[in-house]
């Protein structure tokens, strides 16, 4: 990892056990991909929460080359007997799967079914109230996406970090995407089973 990992605890007492556990999981990520630029982990207990119970939130952000970011945002209402380490482990398991998939795709080990002319990109800016977003391909090219260009009425499911496939085309204002479809969400928000 090029930049030392950053771990932040908000609304939770610091514990050497939890920090050591997180650092061990970060080392596992670092062993999976040797080109990780940075890793940031935020563990928190939100104050005002709409659910009952004892919510924990774990957010993991990995930065990879070519401005590629992977994000996992795991929130879970926790029963009194469930430890924070369980939620941390679940978040890191999601990140490991995402990193493995991304690394394999970047190395060409995974055959992705792409229709002729179709491209992949990640949402980099959202303007939800105005009904549009911008996506960026791995080579840095940006495309405008109107909410009506997102298949299955999924515009409201988009967020920064969501990976989409789309058909690139030239619009009146420049490059734009049509037939955009969600491929992978940046994180997982799950409630307790």
Short précis:
This protein has helices spanning 16-32, 84-107, and strands at 6-10, 38-44, 54-64, 68-78, 119-127, 132-136, 142-146, 163-171, 174-184.
Uncertain segments = 109-115, 188-193
Mean pLDDT: 82
- What name is given to the CATH topology of the largest domain? Double Stranded RNA Binding Domain
Main sheet makeup: 5 strands, antiparallel
Secondary-structure element pattern, one letter each: EHEEEHEEEEE
By CATH, the architecture of the largest domain is named: 2-Layer Sandwich
CATH class of the largest domain: Alpha Beta
Inertia-based shape: globular
Write down how many β-strands occur, each being a DSSP E stretch of 2 or more residues: 9
Strands in their spatial order, largest beta sheet: 7-6-5-8-9
Number of helical regions: 2
Structural domain count:
2
The N- to C-terminal Cα distance equals 35 Å
CATH superfamily of the largest domain: Ribosome hibernation promotion factor-like
Strand percent estimate: 35-45%
Report the C-alpha radius of gyration, rounded. 18 Å
Q: How does the helix and strand content classify structurally?
A: alpha+beta
Identify the quaternary structure here.
single chain
Helicity range of the residues?
A: 10-25%
């Amino acid at each position: 990892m090029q930049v030392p990992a950053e771990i932040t605890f908000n609304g939770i007492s610091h514990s050497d056990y939890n920090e050591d556990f997180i650092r061990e999981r970060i080392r596992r990520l670092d062993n999976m991909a040797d080109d990780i630029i940075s890793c940031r982990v935020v563990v928190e207990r939100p104050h005002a929460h709409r659910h009952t119970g004892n919510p924990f939130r774990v957010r993991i952000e990995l930065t990879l080359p070519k401005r590629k970011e992977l994000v996992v945002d795991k929130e879970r209402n926790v029963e009194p007997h469930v430890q924070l380490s369980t939620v941390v482990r679940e978040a890191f398991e999601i990140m490991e799967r995402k990193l493995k998939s991304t690394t394999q795709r970047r190395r060409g080990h995974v055959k992705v079914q792409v229709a002729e002319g179709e491209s992949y990109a990640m949402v980099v800016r959202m303007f939800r109230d105005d009904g549009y977003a911008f996506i960026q391909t791995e080579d840095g090219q940006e495309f405008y996406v109107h909410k009506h260009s997102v298949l299955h009425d999924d515009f409201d499911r988009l967020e920064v970090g969501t990976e989409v496939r789309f058909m690139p085309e030239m619009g009146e204002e420049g490059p734009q995407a049509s037939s955009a479809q969600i491929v992978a969400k940046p994180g997982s928000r799950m409630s307790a089973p």
